[in-house]
Design brief:
Structural class: mainly alpha
CATH architecture of one domain: Alpha Horseshoe
Largest sheet: none
CATH class of one domain: Mainly Alpha
Strand content: under 5%
Oligomer: single chain
Helix content: over 70%
């Protein structure tokens, strides 16, 4: 990149012919004090004390805002401090108001440098082209123009690449969103199926419980029926006992009495037979007469 032409413009004579009568009158009224301020600013600039140089140029502009040389040199001083946004208006003023093409060319050239620093390559290209229109033989400006065009092309390619990447990213995001929606839908369906299954299991459980309750009720009913049957049987037996009626598989008192009498009779008969046999078979004892 071409270095700034900081001092060459200072050698240009202040006596110029202007079409603008107001500007001509202002330039003609440059005082020695203003010129002295410019010289002091230039001395600081050569010593690379750009802050002090800036101060001197600003003092000159306070006295004469139309002082072309002060505007240009102030632009150079703030540019060297990397305050590019502050430098640009100074160059624009000179490029607009300067009568000589060489002065316009140098202002446009430094405007191009400022745009390059700000990575505004499209504006830099236009500034360098304007500089060459005013000074076609400036090889340094031509080199800077080629560099700016290359940087602009690279910037555009990068922007296109970034845009493509952004589009791909947006596409991927949309695809991911669609997939997420699909997954969410599948999950919802799965949740619904699980819920239906749980509800079915619950219904089956409730049915089993109802069946168990029915079985229990049936068992209770059977037990109650059995208890009632047993009770009824006991009551029936009790009634039969009270009425003297024999119960099934049970002898009545009369039958018991008859049975006992029969047994006694049999026992008596048997005893009589035994006794008869004893009498019949007993040996007679004979006494001997010794």
């Amino acid at each position: 990149m071409k270095p700034l032409v900081a001092l060459s413009f200072l050698l240009i004579s202040l006596t110029v012919f202007c079409q603008d009568k107001d500007k001509k009158a202002k330039e003609a009224t440059v005082t020695l004090d203003e010129k002295e301020l410019i010289r002091k600013g230039n001395a600081y600039y050569n010593q690379q004390d750009f802050t002090e140089a800036e101060g001197e140029y600003k003092k000159a502009l306070e006295q004469n805002p139309a002082y072309e040389k002060a505007n240009y040199n102030l632009g150079n001083a703030v540019y060297q401090q990397k305050k590019y946004k502050e430098a640009l208006p100074m160059y624009q003023i000179v490029a607009k108001t300067a009568d000589k093409k060489i002065n316009k060319a140098e202002s446009f050239h430094n405007m191009g440098n400022t745009f390059m620093k700000e990575k505004q390559y499209q504006q830099a290209v236009e500034a360098f082209k304007n500089s060459l229109r005013n000074n076609p033989n400036d090889d340094e400006t031509r080199y800077n123009l080629a560099l700016a065009q290359k940087m602009l092309k690279d910037q555009q390619n990068q922007q296109n690449k970034d845009n493509k990447n952004q589009q791909n990213q947006n596409k991927n995001q949309d695809q991911n969103k669609d997939q997420q929606n699909k997954d969410n839908k599948n999950q919802d369906n799965k949740n619904d199926q699980n819920k239906d299954k749980q509800d079915q299991n619950k219904d089956n459980k409730d049915q089993n419980k109802d069946q168990q309750d029915q079985n229990k009720d049936k068992e209770d009913q059977n037990k109650d029926n059995k208890d009632n049957q047993d009770k009824n049987k006991q009551d029936q037996n009790k009634d039969q006992q009270q009425n003297g009626q024999p119960q099934p598989n049970q002898l009545s008192p009369q039958q018991v009495k008859q049975l006992l009498e029969a047994m006694n009779n049999e026992e008596n008969k048997t005893q009589q037979k035994i006794n008869a046999k004893k009498v019949k078979g007993e040996k007679i004892k004979q006494e001997k007469d010794w």
